[in-house]
Design a protein that fits this description.
The structure holds 2 protein chains of 2 kinds. Chain A is mostly helical. Helices cover 79% and strands 0% of the residues of chain A. Chain A contains 10 helices and no strands. In chain A, helix 3 crosses helix 4, helix 3 runs parallel beside helix 5 and helix 7 packs antiparallel against helix 10. The termini of chain A are far apart. Chain B is mainly alpha-helical. Chain B is rod-shaped and about 140 Å long. In chain B, strands 1-2 form a two-stranded antiparallel sheet. In chain B, helix 7 packs antiparallel against helix 16 and helix 8 runs antiparallel to helix 15. Helix content of chain B is 60%, strand content 1%. The two termini of chain B are 65 Å apart. In chain B, a hairpin with a 5-residue loop joins strand 1 and strand 2. The chains are: A mainly alpha, B mainly alpha.
């Protein structure tokens, strides 16, 4: 049934494509969310991913599961989107401050939230900085909640390979997060010292 | 099989069996659905962070679903007129040089092919009938033309072997071989008519030769050559021409020495003119002599029944030389001798012909390629 839908979509039938992707749009959405971290960006990125899937569907050769092909296309589309975003959104804060922009001082409750957000942001950046195979394995198993066997079938590898990739990815993330925590702790101590002096 | 680690401080290997198992350094993280307790504080922090990150995923908004559907429909409708070529470009590129199906690609199931789609394999079957024919013809023409251009000698007719036997060969003059073929009898077959004709011709030529001798005798020019039988052989071209002229006109040869006078030419004048022209044409005369000698020997050998010492042979040979440019004597050699002069110009004709053939082949190739593109 799926194969028939895929072939019809490959011939340019948009309805077949919609019914085909109806069960996979949540996957695309979550992948986009994990890569972007914001609702709007995920929506934009997800739409681009869907259009890319529609354009590149004729090149699908049935040599892997359709779901894994969708995941790969969506992930590569997200990476492209992030590269574009990096170029556009590299705006430093200092010129904005000179123009009168004053970010709100973190209060107690807000500080915790901000710290948590910062940590999660760091974690997301660390995940995105991982090698592609490790990142895919980590996202599928640790963030998407899929089992190792499912992840293995999606990625087209064995379960053991997925496990070792996840293990290596976690080791890297741990190291990076520890460094980040130490740095942020040192920075907060310095800030406190400056505040006491002043 | 790994060797059990021995407990430090104990020399008994059995202690190793009871020793606490060392933690494996390559322990994989637990399967996510059956998440186990973290092994270290940093692991706990990481797991917590990952859980938080996974739980942060908001539900998919309805707008997203609507937006991508609209975008896909818009793209499909906008690309509808040109959609087929753009979306099916990878398939349209399949030509003779490429297999119809990509390695991993499966053929369409029966009945799944859209109505407006022509399988490339079917189109491919239709295309190359005429194209292959044209290509083959072009290749043949190209090879032929190239060979003609490069080696025209291959297309030249082989020269007639110089032999004593009368050989009938092709001539450039189409009428001459036919006449010769009609005149020459088969080997060993007797032809009385032919013998009569030969006798008549011999008589005629003998008369002409006698006339020529008389004509030459009145002049101061060099004495005429004498063949083996002592008959005079006309040597100069003018004498030959005069003899032929007389034979053609049917004039009764005058054997008297005053024959030139009967033509209105004094003997002295004629002799003087001949002498002057003979001196001027000395090299040509030498060539002619050599040719005559060849002709006579050839004739003598060729015609066993004729008298080689007859002066008719010399005159006849000269007539043949004058008319056809032959170098050999006899009927057969007269026929074959005519091919000598055109054979020199044959390569000149073959080379342009080869060039034309090659150009034609190139044109055919271009035409066939265009035909193929048009069909595609």
């Amino acid at each position: 049934m799926d194969e028939l839908l895929i072939r019809r979509a490959q011939q340019g039938d948009p309805e077949a494509f919609e019914s085909l992707m109806g069960g996979l749009e949540s996957l695309v959405w979550r992948v986009c969310w994990h890569y972007t971290g914001s609702r709007e960006d995920a929506a934009d990125c997800g739409q681009e991913a869907m259009l890319k899937l529609w354009r590149t569907l004729p090149s699908f050769r049935f040599d892997c599961a359709f779901e894994s092909w969708v995941y790969r296309v969506a992930a590569s589309c997200c990476l492209d989107w992030l590269r574009k975003r990096k170029k556009e959104a590299a705006v430093p804060l200092e010129p904005l401050r000179e123009q009168g922009y004053d970010p709100p001082d973190p209060a107690d409750g807000v500080e915790k939230q901000a710290l948590r957000k910062e940590e999660l942001g760091n974690l997301r950046q660390a995940i995105l900085a991982l090698p592609e195979d490790q990142r895919d394995a980590l996202i599928l198993t640790q963030l998407e909640g899929r089992s190792y066997s499912e992840a293995a079938s999606l990625l087209g590898t064995t379960e053991g390979t997925v496990k070792s990739r996840v293990n290596r990815a976690r080791l890297r993330l741990k190291a990076q997060l520890t460094d980040a925590r130490e740095l942020s702790a040192a920075a907060s101590v310095k800030q406190k010292e400056r505040g006491d002096r002043s | 099989m790994s060797r059990p680690q021995q407990h430090p401080g104990s020399r008994n290997p059995a202690d190793a069996l009871h020793a606490a198992p060392q933690p494996d350094r390559t322990v994989f993280p637990p399967d996510p659905p059956e998440a186990a307790a973290p092994a270290s504080p940093s692991d706990a922090f990481l797991d917590q962070a990952l859980k938080a990150l996974a739980g942060e995923v908001p539900p998919m908004p309805e707008a997203f679903s609507v937006a991508w559907r609209q975008a896909v429909r818009a793209e499909a409708s906008s690309a509808a007129p040109g959609a087929a070529p753009s979306r099916e470009a990878p398939e349209a590129e399949h030509t003779d040089e490429m297999p119809f199906m990509s390695p991993g690609r499966q053929p369409f199931p029966s009945g799944q092919l859209p109505a407006n789609t022509v399988p490339v394999s079917a189109a491919r079957k239709r295309i190359p009938g005429l194209r292959r024919l044209l290509t083959t013809a072009a290749t043949v023409l190209f090879l032929l033309g190239g060979t003609m251009l490069a080696r025209p000698s291959l297309f030249r007719k082989p020269a007639a072997p110089v032999s004593s036997a009368p050989v009938l060969s092709q001539s450039e003059d189409p009428a001459l071989p036919l006449q010769a073929a009609q005149m020459i009898p088969d080997a060993g077959e007797e032809m009385p008519e032919m013998e009569e004709a030969t006798e008549e011709a011999a008589e005629e030529v003998a008369e002409e030769a006698a006339e020529e001798v008389a004509f030459a005798g009145t002049s101061d020019a060099a004495a005429p050559s004498v063949d083996s039988a002592g008959a005079a052989i006309p040597e100069t071209e003018e004498a030959l021409e005069a003899a032929l002229f007389a034979a053609d006109m049917g004039a009764v040869p005058d054997e008297s020495p005053a024959f030139p006078a009967s033509l209105g030419v004094s003997a002295d004048m004629a002799a003087g003119t001949f002498a002057a022209e003979t001196d001027a044409d000395a090299p040509f005369e030498a060539d002619m002599k050599a040719m005559e000698a060849e002709a006579l020997s050839g004739t003598a050998a060729a015609k066993g029944d004729a008298d080689p010492s007859s002066p008719a042979f010399g005159a006849r040979e000269k007539a043949a030389v004058q008319e056809n440019g032959v170098t050999d004597a006899g009927i057969g050699t007269a026929v074959s001798g005519g091919a000598d002069a055109p054979a020199q110009s044959l390569p000149d004709m073959i080379r342009p012909l080869g060039l034309i053939l090659m150009l034609l082949a190139a044109g055919l190739l271009v035409f066939s390629r265009r035909k193929k593109r048009g069909k595609e």
